[in-house]
Amino acid sequence: MADSKTILIAEDSSVILNLTKKILELQKYRIVSAKNGGEVIKQIESQPIDCVLMDINIPVKDGMECTREIRRNADPRIAKIPVIAITGNANNYSMEQFREAGVTDYLPKPLDFDALVRVVKQYVG
Fold it and tell me: What InterPro entries does the record point to (predicted)?
């Protein structure tokens, strides 16, 4: 697993987090998690992350604010991390708002796990 890609799952629901983690571990990805926006930033700054699955409605700092903060990071490796928004409220946001925040792509809830794997592979291999 030394060369496996690391995916950060930012999700406050333990059920969704555990299901998503299992699906991606089966694809040989290394998974780290964050339950709120503060943890997202700490995780990203403490280790190399290849992709973030970002629940938009996480506590402390929401997913849109976390994504903006990632994009503003002085370290270009961090600023370029693909961020895939995950939300049950996609209708509350326009694609323009997602783009403005720096979201790379988005997946609606309930998650289609085939689409999840396909989108993650598209951005991290």
Answer: CheY-like_superfamily, Sig_transdc_resp-reg_receiver
